[in-house]
Amino acid sequence: MGEVVSSCRLCAGQCSLRILVNRHGAVTSIHGDHANPVSRGYACIKGVTLHEAHNSPDRVLHPLKRRQDGTFERIALEQALDEIADRIEGVVKRHGPQAMAGFRGTMNYSNLLANALLPEFIRALGSRSFFSTMTIDQSAKWINVERLGAWAGGRTPVRDSDVLMVVGSNPLVSISTLNFELAHDRDAAGRDSLAGR
């Protein structure tokens, strides 16, 4: 058994993880890293069960095609890509290019190829229907900032604040909160500041 320190790639928080690996190199368990000064041992359920998803018997490793009865059959990648292309072409011919849309999730920006490929693919189809977490489930965050106002000079250092009021968010858990500094710091007496978790 050995332990590897890494970070979770599922969201922008990138919480520090301690990963236990057996002598065969397989991950046996994952825990938050209490030695990390920012995450302090916190990791959500998605991060600490990454190995279960990776090793799941239900994980899709090959192209599968749904049969009429609802079951799946394995097909070659070339066949899958050809059939997908035919279906996309049919949708565009029947309903126009705007019927095709793309959605980019939170951590897509860390995948440099996919980050550029998806919007270009949608553009090549002639569609402007491109969405992200900012347009689907976090748009209120940006609208509130514009309506209520925010300090345009950058994030306010929490350690320099006398009072901090956060409405509609829990930065100690949700990690990324607009205009909230995530840096770990200690005051002159060595106590943890609010900026750390």
Q: Give the overall pLDDT as a whole number.
A: 82
CATH third-tier fold name of the largest domain: Phosphorylase Kinase, domain 1
Approximate shape: flat
What is the chain-wise order of helices and strands? EEEHHEEHEHEHHH
Second-tier CATH architecture of the largest domain: 2-Layer Sandwich
Low-confidence stretches: 183-197
Percentage beta strand: 15-25%
Structural class estimated from helices and strands: alpha+beta
Distance between the termini: 30 Å
- Count the beta strands: 7
- Percent of residues in helices comes to 25-40%
Biggest sheet details: 3 strands, antiparallel
The total tally of domains equals 4
- In DSSP terms (H or I, runs of 4 or more residues), the helix count works out at 7
User: What strand order characterises the main sheet?
Assistant: 1-2-3
SSE inventory with pairings:
Elements: E1 2-7, E2 16-21, E3 27-32, H1 45-48, H2 50-55, E4 64-66, E5 72-74, H3 77-95, E6 102-104, H4 112-124, E7 130-132, H5 133-136, H6 139-148, H7 171-174
Parallel strand pairs: 6-7
Antiparallel strand pairs: 1-2, 2-3, 4-5
List keywords for this structure.
single chain; three-stranded antiparallel β-sheet; 7 helices; 7 strands
Structure commentary:
- The protein has about 200 residues and is α+β, with helices and mostly antiparallel strands.
- It has four domains: about 1-55, 2-Layer Sandwich (Phosphorylase Kinase, domain 1), CATH 3.30.200.210; about 60-95, no CATH class; about 100-135, no CATH class; about 150-195, no CATH class.
- Helix content is about 30%, strand content about 15%.
- It contains seven helices and seven strands.
